[in-house]
Amino acid sequence: MIEVVGVEKRFGSTTALAGVDLTVRPGELVGLLGHNGAGKSTLMKLLAGQLQPSAGTVRVGGVDVGADPGEARRRLGYVPEEPALWEYLSAREFLEFVVSVRGRGDVEAALAVTGLGADADRLVREYSQGMRRKTAIAAAVVARPPAVVLDEALNGLDPPSAVRVRDHLRELCAEGAAVLLSTHVLETVERLADRVVLMTRGRVVEDVRVAELGDGGLEALFRERIRPD
Protein backbone atom coordinates (compact mmCIF):
# COMPACT_ATOMS: atom_id res chain seq x y z
CA MET A 1 0.00 0.00 0.00
CA ILE A 2 2.98 2.28 0.69
CA GLU A 3 6.07 1.50 -1.35
CA VAL A 4 9.39 3.34 -1.55
CA VAL A 5 11.99 1.83 -3.88
CA GLY A 6 15.57 3.07 -4.17
CA VAL A 7 14.59 6.63 -3.32
CA GLU A 8 17.17 9.39 -3.21
CA LYS A 9 16.54 13.04 -2.49
CA ARG A 10 19.17 15.73 -2.90
CA PHE A 11 18.98 19.41 -2.07
CA GLY A 12 21.96 20.86 -3.91
CA SER A 13 25.05 19.27 -2.39
CA THR A 14 23.08 17.84 0.56
CA THR A 15 21.75 14.28 0.33
CA ALA A 16 18.63 13.94 2.50
CA LEU A 17 17.76 10.39 1.38
CA ALA A 18 20.29 7.92 0.04
CA GLY A 19 18.67 4.85 -1.52
CA VAL A 20 15.72 4.27 0.82
CA ASP A 21 13.57 1.13 0.47
CA LEU A 22 10.42 0.88 2.60
CA THR A 23 7.14 -1.01 2.32
CA VAL A 24 4.01 -0.80 4.46
CA ARG A 25 1.54 -3.55 3.61
CA PRO A 26 -2.26 -3.43 3.98
CA GLY A 27 -3.24 -3.93 7.62
CA GLU A 28 0.20 -2.92 8.91
CA LEU A 29 1.23 -0.07 11.19
CA VAL A 30 4.90 0.81 10.89
CA GLY A 31 6.75 3.13 13.26
CA LEU A 32 9.44 5.31 11.67
CA LEU A 33 12.20 6.38 14.05
CA GLY A 34 15.43 8.30 13.74
CA HIS A 35 17.43 11.27 14.99
CA ASN A 36 16.57 14.83 13.96
CA GLY A 37 17.64 15.27 10.35
CA ALA A 38 17.57 11.54 9.58
CA GLY A 39 15.26 12.11 6.60
CA LYS A 40 11.91 11.03 8.06
CA SER A 41 9.97 14.19 7.19
CA THR A 42 11.55 14.35 3.72
CA LEU A 43 10.39 10.79 3.08
CA MET A 44 6.85 11.61 4.20
CA LYS A 45 6.72 14.72 2.00
CA LEU A 46 7.69 12.51 -0.94
CA LEU A 47 4.79 10.18 -0.12
CA ALA A 48 2.42 13.16 -0.03
CA GLY A 49 3.70 14.49 -3.35
CA GLN A 50 5.04 17.69 -1.79
CA LEU A 51 8.53 16.80 -3.03
CA GLN A 52 9.77 14.79 -5.99
CA PRO A 53 12.54 12.18 -5.60
CA SER A 54 15.89 12.76 -7.24
CA ALA A 55 15.90 9.03 -8.02
CA GLY A 56 13.72 6.02 -7.27
CA THR A 57 9.99 5.43 -7.09
CA VAL A 58 7.30 6.27 -4.53
CA ARG A 59 3.89 4.56 -4.72
CA VAL A 60 0.74 4.92 -2.64
CA GLY A 61 -1.97 2.33 -3.19
CA GLY A 62 -0.12 1.12 -6.26
CA VAL A 63 -0.08 4.60 -7.83
CA ASP A 64 3.21 6.27 -8.74
CA VAL A 65 3.14 9.56 -6.83
CA GLY A 66 5.34 11.31 -9.40
CA ALA A 67 3.35 10.11 -12.41
CA ASP A 68 -0.16 10.68 -10.98
CA PRO A 69 0.05 12.77 -7.79
CA GLY A 70 -3.67 13.58 -7.73
CA GLU A 71 -4.74 9.94 -7.73
CA ALA A 72 -2.05 9.05 -5.17
CA ARG A 73 -3.25 11.81 -2.84
CA ARG A 74 -6.82 10.51 -3.06
CA ARG A 75 -5.57 7.30 -1.49
CA LEU A 76 -3.63 9.01 1.28
CA GLY A 77 -4.38 10.70 4.58
CA TYR A 78 -1.42 12.85 5.64
CA VAL A 79 -0.57 14.85 8.76
CA PRO A 80 2.61 16.93 8.34
CA GLU A 81 4.82 17.84 11.26
CA GLU A 82 3.54 21.43 11.10
CA PRO A 83 -0.05 21.33 9.77
CA ALA A 84 -1.32 24.37 7.87
CA LEU A 85 -5.01 25.07 8.48
CA TRP A 86 -7.42 27.78 7.37
CA GLU A 87 -7.61 30.12 10.35
CA TYR A 88 -11.08 31.50 9.70
CA LEU A 89 -12.88 28.18 9.36
CA SER A 90 -14.10 26.09 12.25
CA ALA A 91 -12.91 22.50 12.55
CA ARG A 92 -16.33 21.32 11.36
CA GLU A 93 -16.22 23.60 8.31
CA PHE A 94 -12.68 22.52 7.53
CA LEU A 95 -13.65 18.85 7.64
CA GLU A 96 -16.77 19.49 5.55
CA PHE A 97 -14.51 21.07 2.93
CA VAL A 98 -12.17 18.05 3.00
CA VAL A 99 -15.15 15.72 2.56
CA SER A 100 -16.41 17.77 -0.40
CA VAL A 101 -13.00 17.52 -2.08
CA ARG A 102 -12.58 13.81 -1.41
CA GLY A 103 -16.18 12.99 -2.23
CA ARG A 104 -16.72 10.94 0.92
CA GLY A 105 -16.22 11.01 4.67
CA ASP A 106 -17.91 11.17 8.06
CA VAL A 107 -17.32 14.51 9.78
CA GLU A 108 -18.95 13.59 13.07
CA ALA A 109 -16.97 10.36 13.36
CA ALA A 110 -13.69 12.19 12.71
CA LEU A 111 -14.55 14.81 15.34
CA ALA A 112 -15.33 12.05 17.82
CA VAL A 113 -12.02 10.28 17.15
CA THR A 114 -10.03 13.39 18.06
CA GLY A 115 -12.29 14.67 20.82
CA LEU A 116 -13.03 17.97 19.09
CA GLY A 117 -16.80 17.73 19.33
CA ALA A 118 -17.30 20.43 21.98
CA ASP A 119 -15.02 22.85 20.13
CA ALA A 120 -15.90 21.89 16.56
CA ASP A 121 -17.64 25.20 15.80
CA ARG A 122 -14.93 27.51 17.11
CA LEU A 123 -12.59 29.14 14.60
CA VAL A 124 -9.25 27.41 14.10
CA ARG A 125 -7.45 30.68 14.89
CA GLU A 126 -8.70 30.31 18.48
CA TYR A 127 -7.26 26.82 18.86
CA SER A 128 -4.27 25.69 20.89
CA GLN A 129 -1.50 23.78 19.10
CA GLY A 130 -2.92 20.52 20.40
CA MET A 131 -6.38 21.31 19.03
CA ARG A 132 -4.90 22.28 15.66
CA ARG A 133 -3.13 18.92 15.55
CA LYS A 134 -6.41 17.18 16.37
CA THR A 135 -8.03 19.01 13.44
CA ALA A 136 -5.27 17.89 11.08
CA ILE A 137 -5.59 14.28 12.24
CA ALA A 138 -9.37 14.41 11.79
CA ALA A 139 -8.88 15.70 8.23
CA ALA A 140 -6.44 12.88 7.47
CA VAL A 141 -8.80 10.10 8.60
CA VAL A 142 -12.23 11.59 7.79
CA ALA A 143 -12.50 9.64 4.51
CA ARG A 144 -10.90 6.46 5.95
CA PRO A 145 -8.21 6.37 3.24
CA PRO A 146 -6.32 3.14 2.49
CA ALA A 147 -2.98 4.73 3.45
CA VAL A 148 -2.25 7.10 6.34
CA VAL A 149 1.05 8.91 6.95
CA LEU A 150 1.55 10.82 10.21
CA ASP A 151 4.63 12.92 10.92
CA GLU A 152 4.92 13.42 14.70
CA ALA A 153 1.13 13.64 14.73
CA LEU A 154 0.60 12.39 18.28
CA ASN A 155 2.83 15.05 19.83
CA GLY A 156 0.95 17.48 22.05
CA LEU A 157 -2.28 15.50 22.26
CA ASP A 158 -3.90 15.17 25.66
CA PRO A 159 -3.86 11.57 26.95
CA PRO A 160 -7.55 10.73 26.25
CA SER A 161 -7.28 12.03 22.68
CA ALA A 162 -4.00 10.18 22.10
CA VAL A 163 -5.64 6.93 23.22
CA ARG A 164 -8.63 7.47 20.92
CA VAL A 165 -6.40 8.25 17.94
CA ARG A 166 -4.19 5.22 18.58
CA ASP A 167 -7.27 3.00 18.82
CA HIS A 168 -8.61 4.45 15.58
CA LEU A 169 -5.35 3.81 13.75
CA ARG A 170 -5.48 0.18 14.80
CA GLU A 171 -9.11 0.07 13.65
CA LEU A 172 -8.09 1.39 10.23
CA CYS A 173 -5.38 -1.28 10.03
CA ALA A 174 -7.96 -3.95 10.89
CA GLU A 175 -9.91 -2.73 7.85
CA GLY A 176 -6.81 -3.15 5.66
CA ALA A 177 -5.28 0.33 5.73
CA ALA A 178 -1.52 0.89 5.86
CA VAL A 179 -0.26 3.36 8.46
CA LEU A 180 3.20 4.93 8.67
CA LEU A 181 3.80 6.84 11.91
CA SER A 182 6.87 8.94 12.64
CA THR A 183 7.51 9.68 16.31
CA HIS A 184 10.29 10.18 18.83
CA VAL A 185 8.33 8.38 21.55
CA LEU A 186 9.69 4.83 21.68
CA GLU A 187 6.96 3.61 24.03
CA THR A 188 4.27 4.58 21.53
CA VAL A 189 5.91 2.51 18.80
CA GLU A 190 6.39 -0.52 21.03
CA ARG A 191 2.75 -0.38 22.11
CA LEU A 192 1.18 0.40 18.74
CA ALA A 193 3.32 -0.70 15.79
CA ASP A 194 3.72 -4.03 14.02
CA ARG A 195 7.14 -3.11 12.66
CA VAL A 196 9.72 -0.45 13.34
CA VAL A 197 12.01 1.15 10.76
CA LEU A 198 15.09 3.03 11.96
CA MET A 199 16.66 5.75 9.82
CA THR A 200 19.95 7.58 10.19
CA ARG A 201 21.62 10.03 7.81
CA GLY A 202 19.13 9.38 5.02
CA ARG A 203 19.34 5.58 5.14
CA VAL A 204 17.27 2.76 6.60
CA VAL A 205 19.50 0.88 9.03
CA GLU A 206 16.95 -1.46 10.62
CA ASP A 207 13.55 -2.92 9.74
CA VAL A 208 12.26 -5.31 12.37
CA ARG A 209 8.98 -6.59 13.75
CA VAL A 210 8.24 -5.24 17.22
CA ALA A 211 7.43 -8.76 18.43
CA GLU A 212 11.01 -9.79 17.56
CA LEU A 213 12.78 -7.12 19.62
CA GLY A 214 15.24 -8.45 22.16
CA ASP A 215 15.21 -8.15 25.95
CA GLY A 216 16.21 -4.49 25.87
CA GLY A 217 13.31 -3.65 23.59
CA LEU A 218 13.27 -0.75 21.22
CA GLU A 219 15.42 1.51 23.40
CA ALA A 220 18.32 -0.95 23.26
CA LEU A 221 17.99 -1.30 19.49
CA PHE A 222 17.83 2.47 19.08
CA ARG A 223 20.95 2.99 21.19
CA GLU A 224 22.81 0.35 19.18
CA ARG A 225 21.81 1.47 15.69
CA ILE A 226 21.26 5.23 16.02
CA ARG A 227 24.50 6.74 17.24
CA PRO A 228 25.05 10.48 17.72
CA ASP A 229 27.67 12.24 15.57
Structural write-up:
The chain contains eight helices and ten strands. The chain is of the alpha/beta class and 229 residues long. The strands form two sheets. The chain has a six-stranded mixed β-sheet with strand order 6-7-8-3-9-10, sandwiched between helices. It has a four-stranded antiparallel β-sheet with strand order 2-1-4-5. The longest helix has 16 residues, at 159-174. The chain is globular, with a radius of gyration of 17 Å. The model has no long low-confidence stretch (mean pLDDT 92).
Structural topology:
Blueprint (H helix, E strand, L loop, with lengths): L1 E10 L2 E11 L4 E6 L5 H8 L7 E6 L2 E2 L4 H6 L1 E4 L11 H12 L4 H8 L14 H13 L5 E5 L7 H16 L3 E5 L3 H7 L2 E6 L2 E7 L7 H9 L4
Parallel strand pairs: 3-8, 3-9, 6-7, 7-8
Antiparallel strand pairs: 1-2, 1-4, 4-5, 9-10
